[in-house]
Amino acid sequence: MHLERVIATLRFDPLLPLWALAGLALLCVLALLPGLWRRAPGTIWRAAAFAVLLLWLAGPRLVQESRETLPDIGLLVVDQTASMQIGERARLVEAARASIAEQAAKMPDLELRTIVVPEAGNAGTRLFEAIGRALADIPRARLAGTIAVTDGQIHDIPDAKDAPAALGGAPLNLLIPARGEETDRRIRVIEAPSYGIVGRKATLRVAVEDLGVAHPAGSARLTVRRDGEPPSIASVPIGHDQQIELPIQRAGPSVVELSVEKLPGEVSTLNNRAVIEINGVRDRLRVLLISGEPHPGERTWRRLLKADPSVDLVHFTILRPPEKDDLTPLNELALIAFPVRELFLDKIDQFDLIILDRFQNRGLLPLPYIGNIADRVRAGGALLLSVGPEFSGQASLAATPLGTVLPARPAPFGAVVTGPFRPRVTDLGARHPITEGLPGANLPAATLPAATLPGANLPDTSGAAGAAPTWGDWYRRIQPTDVRGEVLMSAPDGSPLLIVDRVGEGRTALLLSDQIWLWSRGHEGGGPQAELLRRIAHWLMQEPELEENALTARVADGQLHIERRSTDPGPPGEVTVTDPDGRARRLKLAETAPGRSAVSLAAPTPGVWQASDGAHVAYAAAGPADPMEFADLRATATKAGPVARASGGGVHWLEGASPGAPPVLPDLRRTEPDRPASGSAWVGLQRRHDHLVTGIAALALLPSWAALPLLLGLLVLAWRREGA
After folding, report:
1. Which of 55, 409, 451, 626 is packed most tightly, with the most Cβ within 10 A?
2. Are 173 and 644 in contact (CB under 8 A)?
3. What is the pTM of this model?
4. How far apart are CA 663 and CA 659, in angstroms?
5. CB within 8 A of 315, min separation 6: which ones?
6. Within 13 Å of residue 634, how many CA atoms lie on the same side as its CB?
7. What burial class does residue 622 get, using C-beta atoms within 10 Å of its C-beta: 0-12 exposed, 13-18 middle, 19+ buried?
8. At a CB cut-off of 8 Å and minimum separation 6, what does 676 contact?
9. Angle between helices 43-58 and 18-38 (to 10 degrees)
C-alpha cells in the first residue's frame, strides 16, 4: 500500500553565490558600526533595511512536497537443506514461516519476500550466498531486515567485519527449530586409504567426538563391519584419534562400516556411522614366461607383459635344447644355464601366472617339476599355454602330469590344421569378459541353428555364426579333443581355439594356435591381440573386473547401480536389495549387453547397501549426499548467533517446552532504525521511511515586488530619522 503525504519545508535559493552574500553581509555590518558607535538615531532602520536586502538576496521559499511513502522490504529466509529434515525441524520451520508471513500481510507498509535455501550438493548450507542474491534486487534504503529460519548449521558465515555488508546494513534475526542448544555424537574419518595392497594391512584413522557437550570424556563402543563379516567391537576414548588396521585379503573393493553407540540425548544417530570403500590391489603380479624356442610371436608376449606396470616379468627362451649336440665346448657357449630347480621347485609359489609359449617336454624339465606346475595351479596359481605343432607330438605337455589341469588334449590324428581362417567369438565368448566387445569381432547370433562339429567330444560352439569378423587371418591351429571348460573363441568350423577353465583354486587357459603374433604385425589389418592377451592374463590372475559370473554394486550421484555378469544365456533374473536400515526389496534386472544385466535405484540413506542374486552378494558404500551437512547435526546458535546479535537482531528458539507442544512463535513488530530489532518474544523489521516525491510546490516568502518597496521604505525612514 502506498500512502500520500504533504511535507512543507523552508528552503533558500540565493541570488548570489554564498561567498558573495557573506561578503555583502560583512560590508553591511561594517557600515552599521559607526552609527552604533555614535548611537545615531536611524541606525535601527538602516540595519532593518540591510536585513531585508540580505533576506531578499537569500531567496527564502516555502516548499511543499507531495510524497508517496514506499513500503519497506523484509527478507524471510527458509533453510530447506538436508539437516532440516531431522526430527520436528521441518514442522517447526513451516509453522514459523506461516506465522511470519501472516503477520507481515497485516502490515500495509511492509513487503515480505521469502527465499528458500536449497540443498547445495556437497557444499553445505550456503545461507549468506542466498541472502546476497536476494539483496541484489532490494534497495538498501528500503531493507527492513532479515529473518532466517535455520538450524544454525551455516557454512558460509562471513567474518565480523564483512557481516554488515553481507546483510545490507539491516538486522538479522535467527529462528532456530529446537528447544535450545543440542548435543550430537559423530564418528569422524580423519584418514582412510582408497587402496590397499593384498596381503598387507590398511590403516584407518578415526575419532569419536561429542559435540555440544561441555566436557566430553570417557569412551564409546566402536563397531567395525566389513563385507557382511562378523563385526569387531572395541572401546575407544572420546575426542582422541584412533587407528584401525584392516588386513586386505583379496583384490577388489571391500566396504567397511564403522558405527559408534548412541550418546544419550543426542539429536540424531545419522552421523554415528561412516562407510569406507577400500580397493584391494596386488602389489606386483609376478609372471614367468618360458618360450620353448625362438619364434616370431615371442616378442608379442614379452612386449605385452613389459608394457604392464603392474607385472614383474621373468622370461626365459630355450635356445639350445638338450638333444642338440654340436660339439661346442660348454665354456665357449654364451648361454646361461636354465635354473630348473630354482624356478620349478624353490620359487614356483612366488609366480601368479606361468606362461608356456610353444614349450614341449624334451627332457628339460623332470616330470616331478612339471607336476609342481600342476600343483601350483590347483593351489591358486594360473597357467597359460600358447601352442603350435609341438603340442601334437610325442613331447606334448598333454602327455605329462600337466595334462591333468589342461582344458583339452590334441586330437590323436590330424591335430595340426593349416590354411587361412579367421577366429570367431562364440556365443559364450560374447558374454565372457575376456572376449566381449573385442574390436573387429563377429556378432554372435545365438538363434541360428547349430552345425555338427568335427572331432570327438567337442562342445557345440557354432552359435557364433553372426556377422563375419573383420580382423586378420591366422594360418595354423591345433584340433583338440577331450575339451572341458569354456570355449570363448573358435575356428569357422566351430573347432575350439581359446579355452579357459577353473582347476581347484586356480585357472588355466589354452590358446590352440601360435599365430596371434600376425595381428601385432598388422597382417590384413591386424587384430586386438594386446587387449585379448591382457584380458586372458588378468582373468587367469583372478582380477575382479574380469570375473565372468559376478555381482557388483556401487553408489554414484545418489543412485545405487547394480550389475550382474553371467555366462548363463537365460533370463537376467532378480536381485534382492537391502538398505542400511535392513529393509529389503526385490528388483528385476534388465539385460544391457550379452552377459550383462543391470538395475538402478535411489540410495538416499547413508550406509552399506547390499545386493544379492542368490549366488553372489555385493556391497556398496553410500556416503551422505552432502557430507558438510551431516558432519554436525545440532541445532545451534554458536555459529551465526554472534553475527545476528551484532547486527541488532537476536536468536529465538521455536520448539515448545515438551515434545509435541505447540511451537513458540515470536511476534513480528516494526522498529525504528536506532532501536533494537529483537526482544524476548518478538522480532523486528525496521521502518526505513523511504519515499517517492510525486509533486513540488514552491512559494517565495520575499518576492521582488514586495522586497524592493520594503527596502526603499526602510531606507526613507532611516534617512528621515537621521535628519530629525
Report:
1. 409
2. yes
3. 0.72
4. 10
5. 289, 290, 291, 302, 305
6. 20
7. buried
8. 648, 650, 684
9. 170
Residues 118 and 626: their CA atoms lie apart, in Å, by 12
Q: Give the gyration radius of the chain's Cα atoms.
A: 46
Q: Say which residues have a Cβ less than 8 Å from residue 578's Cβ, sequence separation at least 6.
A: 584, 609, 610, 611, 612
Strand pairing class (480-481; 409-410)? antiparallel
What pLDDT score was predicted for residue 461?
40
Contact in structure between 598 and 552 (CB atoms under 8 Å): no
Contact of 354 with 291, CB cutoff 8 Å: no
Question: What are the residue ranges in the chain where pLDDT is below 50?
Answer: 334, 446-465
The DSSP output letter for 379 is: T
Length of the chain in residues, anyone? Answer: 724
**What is the per-residue DSSP string for 195-230?**
EEETTSEEEEEEEEEEET-SS--SEEEEEEEETTPP
Buried/exposed code over 279-298 (b: 16+ C-beta within 10 A; e: otherwise): ebbbeebbbbbbbbbeeebb
Please give the grid coordinates belonging to residue 379. Answer: 593351489
**Res 399: pLDDT:** 87
Distance CA 520, CA 386 (A): 15
| pLDDT the model gives residue 329 | 57
Under a CB-based contact definition with an 8 Å cutoff, are residues 185 and 262 in contact? yes
Quote the pLDDT of residue 444. Answer: 56
